Amino acid sequence: MDTLSPGAGPIDAPAAAVLREVVARLQRLAREPDFSDAIDLHSLPLGESGREQLRQRLGQGEVDCALQVAGATRICETAYAGAWWVRHADADDRTQHEQIVIARVPALLLAHSDDIGDAARRLAEELAAPACQEIS
Amino acid sequence: MSTAAAKSPAFDQQGTQSDAQRVDAAMRSFVREFGVTAALHMESCVRCGMCAEACHFHVATGEAKYTPVYKLELFRRAYFREASPFAPLVRLLGLVKPPSIGELQQWQELIYGSCTVCGRCTMICPMGIDIAELVKEARHGMFKAGLIPERLALMDRAAQQWGSTATPGEDLPDILREVSEEHGVEIPCDLDSAEMLVTAAPAELGDHTKALAAAAKVLNRAGIRWTMHQGGFDAANIGFNNGDLELQERLTRSIIDTAIKIGANTVLLPECGHAYGAARWEAAKWYGQALPVRIIHMTEFLDEMLAAGRIKVKPIGQSATFHDPCQIVRRGGLEAAARRVVAALGFELIELKDHGIAGYCCGGGGGVVSNVRATPLRHKVFEIKRAQIDATGAERFVTSCGQCRITLEQGAKQARWTKPVESLLELVADNLAD
Amino acid sequence: MSQARLLGEVLRERGVSRRAFLKYAGYMASLMALPPSAAGAMAEGLAKARRQAVIWLSFQECTGCIESLTRSFSPSLEDLIFDFISLDYQHALQAASGEAAEEARRQSMRENKGKYIVIVDGSVPMGDGGVYSTVAGHTNQAILAETIADAAAVVAVGTCAAFGGLPEADPNPTGAVPISQLVGDKPLINIPGCPPMPQAMAGTLLHILSFGKLPELDHLHRPRAFFGENIHDRCYRRPFYERGLFAKAFDDEGAREGWCLYELGCKGPVTYNACASLKWNGGVSFPIQSGHGCIGCSEPRFWDRGGLYRALPTGTSDVRKVIGIAAVAGVALGAGAAALARRRSAATRDAAAAPPAKTPSPQE
Amino acid sequence: MDLLDFARGPALTFAGAVFVLGTLWRLSGVLLLPRLRDLSPPREGAPAPWRGALGTVLRRMWPRREFLDRTMFSTVNSYVFHIGLAVTVFGLAPHILFIRNFSGLSWPALPSNVVFAVGVITLVSLFAALARRLTHPVLKLLSHTGDYLSWALTTLPVLTGLLATAHLGARYETLLALHILSIAAFLIWFPFGKLMHAFLFVFSRGATGVRFSHRGVKA
Question: What pTM does this model have?
């Protein structure tokens, strides 16, 4: 167990390995802005304690957003810009999938062009529809 | 210096049997050997090669063919074909070839020419295989096949004729009279009844008569009612060495029957190795029951007489080293007795590097000293013993076997080594105190 | 019933945004051990795919497989699969029955000729002409043959369909056979397990949909993504195995400490499945984690491998009787060999005992 | 899976039967041969025959001082792989289970990684023994196919066992099947080759022990 930052308490080896991976990817992201990658916490031999240590160590950033997409998803920026903690839950709020995403912004947050096209179309129809005639 | 050029390892043959008859005779004899012990030993060899490290013939020459268990190769093949639990299977599938006449002939050099049946290999074998005993048992087959060294065959025929390899029975009274006159000691012969029948080694009736006289001196001093007897006087059983079971039986019976006839309760064996092996451990085999007479070796006798105080000796007070004759100490169990006698003689005993049960063989036992073919090999082996004796720096060099003395004297002569080889018996006799 | 329109459009109308596609694809990619970057490609592939027609044939089965997939008690991400496929025929789920149901199946086969996927659970009885399991008078064998004729691929879910499972276990009274013996060269995927993991079923179907081809399979036609590693190698109790700490009983101190269940018959080392990594019931637990050894349910003939609680390294058959006979025979042969050797040695001794008269020794 | 089923089932059963039959056949075939008793009086103070036998059986565990330096390599190397085999076979948990399955006997296991290390040492030692048998003049002369077969069928289980544990080279169940099949081959060959020394050595040393203790010699 090596301690990355003093005073933040001991950290298990697997957790330390994950953090080293994050550092490597952040360094790359700094060089290549449109680089994006994710570390899947799901299939690693990380016990609950390991995951908790990671969460503590990465801390809280400036962005914290909750998505309602086929069940709840929470994306929050960690204390280290470019590293995002993403947690997908199902209808019963059970963690289905957890990732550390390394990107300027996680792809999930970006609205998809098809959705935008569809949105434009729907809003136009909305305007044309009699229900919302301007109140003269 | 032995002028006989080292002959190529050829072989000798006796009798008129055809090759096939010789092989058959050998195999039929081999089959008879396999009681539980021999079979167990044949089955247990793991070919680890350690026995070579104990055998003076291999140690002196470094040649692989002198590996003790390799000397049993044909005997092993005979066992697996004839007597092993899987013998029928082995024969059916031809897994093991029967020995051929050529192999038996080449094997003579290994079984007779380079094995003194000293049993040092038996002491190292991690599987506890008594290789020496198996070599001796293999010789039975070789004898039946008429494939023994000619010199030994000659001695065999003499013994069949005279009961001794040295002299016919009839000449015994004259020889004993000469010895007693020459050494001024009374040697009874052919008495009708006596307490102890005393036997001699062939050499003692030839050039080593001093040993015979020494025995007489000690016996008379101890006040033993003893006699030698034409009926049975040569204890060095050549049949035991050659593998001639009939002769071994006849020679043993001649001694035991004579002892019983004269009412003796003890048979005293001379300072001879194979005499002890043949009489002490195998005499009862021919009678099928325990013997009514006690058979003891000269060394035991001296030890008992000294212990009982029936004889006393003047201390010599020099340093001495002792060669342990194989059949008497390693395979006979008289290590302690010999050392008690040496101590009684007041010698400061300096043991050889390898002594007692693990001592090196003189290189001449088991008929090897008589087998002229083995002479060059024997002289190489002598170096081992000589080096160890010199290493002790002892003033005197003593042993308790006539054959060893002959072998060591021949070796010393060939190596121009001046230290005399002395007999324990003669030292006791020469130093008897009043 | 399948529309020509793209899945992306169809689902958007029902409020399923492309963001949902991406979330779903990301989750499934991680399940299938694909690199995270594959999520984007999967989402796009899915959006542009047509709605996949699927016909589910149920033969000698216990409905465990469909229950495992649908898991009606708590719908989860896997259930989204039902938005991407058009399940045209499934005994347990379809409302229709009797001839109407059969007609629906045949119509779907006609309309999606060569493109529909046939999912099968349960093995097919071949004994006595297959009478042990029939639907509307037709034997399972006949229905299977008829249905897979124009199918794009066959997916055998559950150990019964994949390897014969319980029906095929000794003594196999119905002559059950696995589907693989009845599909000829039709592309086949086996998703064994009793029941199989829902993620495995959903993931495999999704793979076909989004990439348009079968996932990589092993020598038993099982997707490597889910059946590439054995339980033992991914088991969290493996350190106890290495240190030789084993539970000796289901409730002893070792079991309570969570030690390795090897001695209690765990078949983890020889069973290939994703239970240890993906876990069951939405990642809550899996057999070993709940204190019971793996019974090897995703391997062929796991019912007949000498008992679920017999430790792996032990022989499967009771050898005591055989060893007893061998012992007696051994000693008998030994005694016979010894007697033979004794007789051969005696024979030579008699021959030697009567040699020509010996020369008289001196004193006779 | 079929190979493993075959190995764990019929192969192991057949091998076990051949092992028991062959071993008892050979042992009884030897021990029931005629016993040539020594009728000569024993040396005074000689121990009882069984004590003499036991003495030699124990003494021959290690060479005498005089022979040690000339047999150091063979002795030490042999003990390394003999003890190694013993620790591997009787120390590893799965092996203990295998033994418990047919004998009911069980004992605590050593850590598997320790046994793995011992197994590697054993393998190296066995190859050293083979190297010596192939190069040493005495051993080259003495050895015949039986010796090399015995070596191979003893080394193979160790090799396959290590591969299975390290999960190298093939799927685990294939490796485990090969390991069990190599043990079956070992058991089938055992009674017919020199591996029988594992049982015979006690009787062989004992017989010499009896013969020499009768003569007052600590052989």
Answer: 0.83
